[in-house]
Amino acid sequence: MPSAHESDGALDDLVDPELPTSTYVLEPEAVAPLVARVATSHDAGTHRPVHPFTGAPLTSIPLSSAADVAAAVRRARVAQRAWARVPVRERAAVLDRLGALVLERQSEILDLVQMESGKARRSAFEEVGDVAQVTRHYAVRGPRYLVDRRVPGMMPLVTGVRVHRRPVGVVGVVAAWNYPLTLALADAVPALLAGDAVVLKPDPQTTLSALWVAEQLEDAGLPADLFTVVAGGGEVGEALVDHVDHVAFTGSTATGRAVAARAGARLVGTTLELGGKNPLYVAADADLASAVRGAVRACFSNAGQLCLSVERLVLHEAVADAFLERFVAAVKELRLGPGLDYSADVGSLVSQAQLDRVTRHVDDALARGARALAGAVHRPDVGPYFYAPTVLDDVPADALVATEETFGPVVTVTRVASDDDAVRVMNDTQYGLNASIWSVDVARARRIAARVEAGTVVINDGYGSAWGSVAAPMGGVKASGLGRRHGREAIEAVTEAQTVAVQRGARFGVALETVYAAGGETPSQVVTGALRALRRLRLP
């Protein structure tokens, strides 16, 4: 992709220093090859995403209409039929090349991700590493997930049964803005491997990153129309749900419910990763130095704008004061900054709306008697949407920040007297996405984890080791979602199981119909005897 600047961390090359909010950050000519990839008839208007670091417009992106979405899905259906006939190893090779390209060209996408989402570069690199990991996994292990599976038949030796995985057709991916590279591909990669086509609707704020992904897939050898980007807001997402064969959605619980209802009316499957109010428990025997380092990253990576991010610290009273002394000191040392380099620990919130939400939650808690141990201030001196990493103690149970997902750099503190109390507090939420437990006694931590209502529980880490273990399923319980991404489960979500049963003995006169032909009570007696024999032999 042509670059409008050099990635030296200086924003002076990106915007007019005299009028930083009146000029495009990216020259239209520089991003024209990407913008041209939007599936649009150019009659639905345009959108101008804003650079979170400065408030300046990034570029102008044409939007898709409902008719554009329908046309994109029709083209995808045609392409998918041919793609499904391509040997799975060849499909896997495309994904393997994609992973290599993302690593090779990471400076391009790191710049785009930062400029669209406002995150620090270290958080942006997490996305590069994630895509490399996911593509490698499905390129190597994915074909095994699709191998025909032999299962026991009704009549041993006589009945042969195989289960095939058939692609559903066209998968619609509706991706959120907080991880624009990861979420463009987390559900698309297994779908493409399975033989499906993908139509992606990114958030309007992060369309360029999605278009960059489409460019890399083309360079990796993916045939045309198998990965299409449609641009727009909720109405475009609704149109997509109305036409595809499976919907993968990442976003809020409220919107997820609406997506599931709309898809359900068509009997179309969904994979939903939704909200979270994720807890981190520091047990009495935890290694505090490690717990502090892990908690800082788990709470404030991507400025807390992460579905798996920790928003609730649950501290055993025996170590609470010692932990907080270290933790608060570490939080206060975090560096905020807008550079396109690795100089900052924490980046910006993505928008004014997100800043308003964070501010409302913190101010509500303080007004109800909470104490700010760190942060609790907007930092316009750094950038328009920056908010200081915040730690709140003595938060009332009815405060917004105690009950709703904040999705920002804010964490609350709760003290408990026992592991039982910790489990009660961790489960006291409508959500169940991720939880973290810190203890030097792993067996103890596993026993606690078994009682926690969450799709993933991570021991002695915040979230990364679970998310990065892409062979294992990832998803939420309760109001945090439906279905799973990653691993075999992601392949099963975008395929249909087809059972093919063969009566091998039919040509030799040994088949169920032969038994029934005897008439009268004889078939029942024969089958009863056979079933008793199978029970004695413990055959499945």
TrEMBL record:
Domain Aldehyde dehydrogenase: start-end pairs = 45-500
Tell me yes or no: is Oxidoreductase among this UniProt entry's keywords: yes
Q: What start and end residues bound the annotated signal peptide?
A: none
Name the domain of life. Bacteria
Please name one Pfam family that this protein belongs to.
Aldedh
Q: Which InterPro entries match?
A: Ald_DH/histidinol_DH, Ald_DH_C, Ald_DH_CS_GLU, Ald_DH_N, Aldehyde_DH_dom
> What is the name of this protein?
Succinate-semialdehyde dehydrogenase (NAD(P)(+))
